[in-house]
Every structure is written in structure tokens, then in C-alpha cells.
């Protein structure tokens, strides 16, 4: 527990005009800000409550404001009201300071306390579901939060998908181990590779024609919010299965000095640093987060003497926060991520469909190289206790060069696999701007939190897709490092631009123990596509949609909160339908969900259970018949049940438990197979993680020690639309040992500790090998 003490000396400041940052906000979105002009007259009344919003200087994790800060603030308000001097009264009546000169009143000392790293995994609030700070039990939808403590404890620091292994409704690593960094994940039965990709409440789900996707370095994150079910009403591009919102590490008033060294099997070497500083009054704060990775992987080529695919990655992210007043905050931040990786764990199948130890890629040819960068800003201004305006902006860019090998069929001997090569040059730019006004007000017995806003999302992608020849390979006795000619035949030369503008409004209405959430949105989308293999090459389209959400929650005094909700989504889709030479149609979805949440009063423990029925139309499915590997199906229905627990069983012992049953069926399809399950969708997943702080045993030599472990089960999946081939279920075990000593922290994380060899799926003649045992040691110094 750290304490930050601030003495506020008080005389009433004379009325002043709006600050320059405030005028900038108004100039950018004057139409929206006009909604709150009516409340501006009250903005001149400065209260300690509004001061608390910025001068508490808590970390930007949405959930670190402690009750001690609130109580101190309230006691300060009470004391200031009781001890207001005649001088202050005169000033409040508008008299000049000369006439109110006699003395200067000093307000009581205001002590703000904030916690550093939160132990345990429970979180009370989230802005992901509603864009307002809302208690999780009041959100009428399933949501899970993975905080920084959990990310550290479970050793999430290679691929982002590792963070999602203990979340219900989510299947991580659906294509097995993947060193490329691509975030293969599904939610409630729907592929969410890029469609669920959000960061700091802004979409980063821009996608190229072929390989290009934005990826995430896990060390850059403060927490991860997983909101399940359709979410278009506030985000515009939320998919049917939900969204995964990555919350970035941003400046705090607490000094941060952290260095991390890591080593593990497969010669894994990683160094990372997190540094933050602030001036004395907390008005200017800076943070720098960086990491560098150099590692071999489990992907080992046979008959080569031990050649392994490698990963090289570098990340850096500076950020700066300026608080010119107690009601205004401006944050600037950017990042650069360079990723170099080689072959993924795609193993060739025999003509009969059995797995082999032969990798499809070539060690001297397969390369995934991407450079991505972004610049963002966040503006927030509190006019008073009623009106708040926010504007968030981000521009992201990705340059990618990718090379890989594709299968081209077997020769007559059944063992010689013909192959072809592919190389792409891709560019992906995404610009997102979101501006909204929040109003907290009261009408009679009803308390309202109203949100009204507009957002704009533009994605521009270009593709040069080359194909060429590659030497064949004997799948039972492969010979690698054969020369592969550089692909030089330009097969696809294309570009696509998608513009989306959305207007949304939301009202969270409280009446006694009832919470009613009503949201509505209108989107307009236009796209322009130019692809050389089409006739005509130029294709333009426009679309629009209304989406909504309605949810009702009842809050019992004992912490139980049953709820019911209906929600919709509308998702413009990237790419081309090669069967009719047109852009893919937008996907639409609707969901009914009923559930119950339980959070014992005064704790962060959270128990949730939900039943849902979800239907999505215009679904993209894997299709090897098309050059881009996907086609558009008809309709898929997903029904299921989810249960989650994030709790401290007793002092020092934390538990995460998750269970999912998912019944997913194709209900309409142009290719047939109605009534079957889609590929790579398990109907049952469950997991549990338990760790214990041995220091709570009050044994001196155990002080600082933590132990933990987890188990994950993923049910069988179908490999083909006809549901004739399956990949078996698998169960994996993880373990952790941690020791804290002063500023030092040492962790050993072991995943798949029994080194079970399993496959996550098999599609298109490839088996996707799962993640083998990894043992990683991390030494961290906080100074």
C-alpha cells in the first residue's frame, strides 16, 4: 500500500474561461459538445469530488480507486462545507477578491491512497461493455476481466492468446501453436481472429486481403476485458461472438521502474522494461514500455539436424499524460512492433488423413515479417458532476511481407506431395475516431447515465499476391532446404477501402434495485474494391443498419444480480467473394441471454452463469476452393451455457474456474450440411486455476513464496463440414512457482507440464500441432 499526500490550500479561484485543451475538444466535435452546453454554467463550481477524478492520480486500470480515497474526499467535502469562511461566501456571491480579502482559508489535508499491484483476480468495474465506468454486476451481458496480476502470475508474455486460456466461451489457439503472432481465437462458436480485436475501446480489427492482421505484445497490457455476445451498439464493429478489449499500460502518478529478464526452453531469451515518472503535482506523467524477444520454437524440421523455426520481436511504446486542470486530461501514446517469424506448426496429412511429422513449410523460405505502428490520443474533460466529454483517436499502420508453401496434391505413389509457393506484400491502414458525451443526471426517482456519440472507422488495405513453383517433398522422408524460386507471377493486385460512420445513444437507468440498459445505433458503410482478376475490376457498395441492445438487471442487497438482455451486431467484412466477384456482405447477429451474477458485498469475488442463443448470418467459413481460403455461408446458430468464478477462497488462495457448453449448428448454407457443426468448434471446454500465497501460513521461511497450477480441457472438434472427421479432445496441465524478496521477483511458469502431444484441429490437409511443454524463468526487479 502506497500513500500519496496532497495539501490543497484554498481560496476560490476567480471565474476563468475555458482552457485551450477544452476549446480544442469543442472545435473537433462541436455538434456533440453542444449537448452538454446547458450544464456548463455549473462547471465553474469546483468540488473535491471532481478534483478526485484527476488528482487522485490512480493508475489507468479503471478499478484501482480505493474506498479510502472516496472516504477522504467525502470527509474533506464535509469539513470544507462546515468551515466555509465569510471570505469564501463573498467570493461565491461574485464579490471581488479585494472586498473579500481578510484571510485565506486552508482546507483540511486530503490524503489519497492508492494500491500498487492488486493481488487476486477479481475486478469490480469495466468501461468495455458500455463506455462508461459500470460495475460488472450491472452489465446485462457476460464479461470477464483478466488483470495484470493474472497475466504476470500465469506467465503470459509470448502470444496474446495465452491470456484467454481460462476464460469461458473462448477457445484460444484454434490452429495450435503459432509463432507468427496471429491471434487465432473463437468466441461462442465463431471465428474471431480479427473481428474481436479491440484496444482501449477502439477497433483494431482492420484486416488485409490475405495474411495481414494487427497483433499484440502482452507485456504492453494492463488488463484484458472479454465481452461475449453481439456488441455493435457501442462499438460498431463488434462481432457476434463478442469483443476482446486490450487495455494499454498508460502513465500513472506512481513511479514505475521495472526490468524483466527471461530465459526458457527452446533457447528463449527476452528482456523487458516498464518505466514511469511524474512531476510533483501529478499534472505531467510519462511512461515507456518496451520488450525484445529472441527465441527458437517447437517447430523442428525433420532430417535437418535440428533446424527450428525462430521468432524475433521488438516492441516499444512511449506515452504522456497532461492534466492542465483537475477536470481535463490529455494522453498521447504510440507504439512500434516489429515481428519476424518463420514456419508455424502445420503438419502434412497422408492421403488417408493421418498426421505425419513433416512440416509443410521450408526452413529457408517460409517467413512472416510485419512492421506495425500506431499513434493515439485520449481527451477527457469534466464540465461538472453531470457532463463529461471524451474523444479517442488512433491511426494504425502495418507493412507485411509474407512467404509460405501450399500443398498442391499427391503424386500417384501416395507419398510425394507436390507444392507451390506464395508471397504477398500487404499494406494495412486503420483510422478510428470516437467522440461521445456522458451525462449523469436524475429525473424524479430515476438515475440516468446517458451516452451519445459518433465514431468513424476507415480501413484501407492493399495486396500484391504472387505465386510460383516449389519442389515436391516425400512426406515420409522429407528433404528440406531445397531451393525455392521467388514467386514472380502476380496473381492478385488489389486494394479495398471500407468507411464506417456510426451514431449511438445509450441510457443506463436506475430505479431502486432495478437497472435498465437501453442502447441504439445507426451505421452507414461504404466500400470500394479494385481487384485485377475481376471483370469489372472496380466494385463499390453501400450499406446501413440499425442495431440495439436492451438489458434488465435486478440488484439484490446480498450481491446477487439476475439479468436478461437482447443484443445485435453488424459487421462489415473484409475480402472478396470469389464466387460472385463482389465484396463479402456484412455479417449480422442477434442474441438472447439470461444469467445471474453474484458479487459478495465488499469483495472483488465474482461468480457468473449465463444461458444464450445467438444467430449469425453471412458467416465466413474456411473454403480451400477459393484463393483466399474463405467463402460466405448462410446462417449459424449457437446455443450454450457458461459458468465462471473468480474468487479468493480464503486468505491468499485464489481460484479461477470456467465451464462452457456450446451447441453450434449450421442452419442455412449454400453448400449443404445443414444441421452440422462448423469446423474447429468444440462443444465443451472447462478450466480451473488455483494459486496460493504461502506467506499467509505465517511460517517465516515460506514468506514470499507462491505456488499455483491449472488444468484445461478442450473437447473434440470436427475437421470438415460433413462432420465425418474429428480431432480428439485434450487435457493440459500448467504450473507456477513464484518467489518475492524485496524488489526482486522470480517466477517459473510451466505450461503443458506433461508435454502431451495433441492437435487442435485438422483442415485442408494439415494437422495443427498444439503447444508443447514450455518452461520459462522470469527475473524481475522493481526499484
TrEMBL record:
Xref: CDD domains: ligand_gated_channel
Keyword Protein biosynthesis: no
GO biological process: siderophore transport
Residues in TonB-dependent receptor-like beta-barrel domain copies: 339-753
Keywords for the protein's UniProt record, in alphabetical order: Cell outer membrane, Ion transport, Iron, Iron transport, Membrane, Receptor, Signal, TonB box, Transmembrane, Transmembrane beta strand, Transport
Region (Disordered): 54-109
Residue ranges annotated for the TonB-dependent receptor plug domain, each copy included: 136-243
Membrane topology summary: Multi-pass membrane protein
InterPro entries according to UniProt: Beta-barrel_TonB, Beta-barrel_TonB_sf, Plug_dom, Plug_dom_sf, TonB-dep_rcpt-like, TonB_sidphr_rcpt
Stretches with biased composition (Polar residues): 85-102
One Gene Ontology cellular component: cell outer membrane
Pfam families: Plug, TonB_dep_Rec_b-barrel
Database matches in PROSITE patterns: TONB_DEPENDENT_REC_3
A GO term, aspect molecular function: signaling receptor activity
Compositionally biased region (Basic and acidic residues): 74-84
Highest taxon, organism lineage: Bacteria
Record carries keyword Coiled coil: no
Intracellular or extracellular location(s): Cell outer membrane
Family, per entry: Belongs to the TonB-dependent receptor family.
Stated name of the protein: Iron complex outermembrane receptor protein
Gene source species: Nitrosospira multiformis
